[in-house]
């Protein structure tokens, strides 16, 4: 499951499951302010994402995630990391 749309849909479904809600999820929603995640719920969400995608999320990375879109990008980059040579080519 490496297609970006599949990842996005699964991330959104996991968020909905974590919230115990079927509310619409959009990329610009802030996890804490808009969706009501507290630190415990956020770490539970991260654990669910780790299990679902078989990835490991560091504490440093968790601190950078603010929005649903940040989660989408983070999960996607775990499967498609930026190529170091692409960044230096010009």
Automatic annotation (TrEMBL):
Residue ranges occupied by any Carrier domain in the UniProt entry: 5-79
Pfam families, per database record: PP-binding
Residues in the signal sequence: none
Keywords, in A-Z order: Fatty acid biosynthesis, Fatty acid metabolism, Lipid biosynthesis, Lipid metabolism, Phosphopantetheine, Phosphoprotein
Protein name: Acyl carrier protein
Native source species: Streptomyces noboritoensis
